[in-house]
Amino acid sequence: MSVRVIVPHRGLEAAKTRLSPVLTVEQRGDLAARLLDRVLRMARVALPDVVVISPSAALAPLVEAAGARLAVQRGMGLNEGLEQARDAAVAEGITTLVVLHGDLPSLTVEDVTALVAAIHGARGVAIAPDTAGTGTNGLALRPPAIMGFAFGTGSRAAHEAAAREARVTPVIVERPGLAFDLDTPEDLTRWLATEVPA
């Protein structure tokens, strides 16, 4: 079984815009870099094949320092970028695809391995919801093209529906390290109060 982790990212300049009331552009970029570095390093310990898909070629030094590879996205849009990365994975014979967001400050190696281990057999879908229970912070697909990507508002329900359309029962993986993503000023306050910074 060959597994690849895909981490989509908008680029540091465009990251964390919802934190603009409390952080400067430079601070948001620094925070996004620290979060992405944490996710990549945890993913790389769990699985050797990690690829960042992003329209920003400027991410290359950060990505490569973490032991991952950068694929420059040709178009715009999260789902479109993931489709590009998936097409490349399928062409290279990857049998299981894992998608992780790049802003999971509490992510652990065990979280990544648990997401992959949730799929049994030759076909399956595992979904890691966000803290609110409505979004998707992690996704595991075997085979990689078993269903489409539906990231965006209400993505958990959309991914569950897509899995059922593919005639598989999605496995829900609820782990704190996968659920907590840092998007809002409230998230930042919570992280700073309760977590060791990444």
Please explain how this structure is put together:
The chain has helices at 25-46, 60-65, 78-91, 109-117, 155-165, 176-179, 185-194, and strands at 3-8, 50-54, 69-72, 96-100, 124-129, 136-142, 171-172. By secondary structure, it is an alpha/beta fold. The chain has one domain (3-194): Alpha-Beta Complex (Spore Coat Polysaccharide Biosynthesis Protein SpsA, Chain A). It has a seven-stranded mixed β-sheet, sandwiched between helices. The longest helix is centred in the N-terminal third of the chain and has 22 residues, at 25-46.
Features:
198 residues, alpha/beta, Spore Coat Polysaccharide Biosynthesis Protein SpsA, Chain A, 7-stranded mixed beta sheet, 7 strands, 38% helix, 18% strand, globular
Instruction: State the low-pLDDT regions, or none.
Output: none
Write the CATH architecture name. Alpha-Beta Complex
Sheet with most strands: strand arrangement:
3-2-1-4-6-5-7
Number of domains: 1
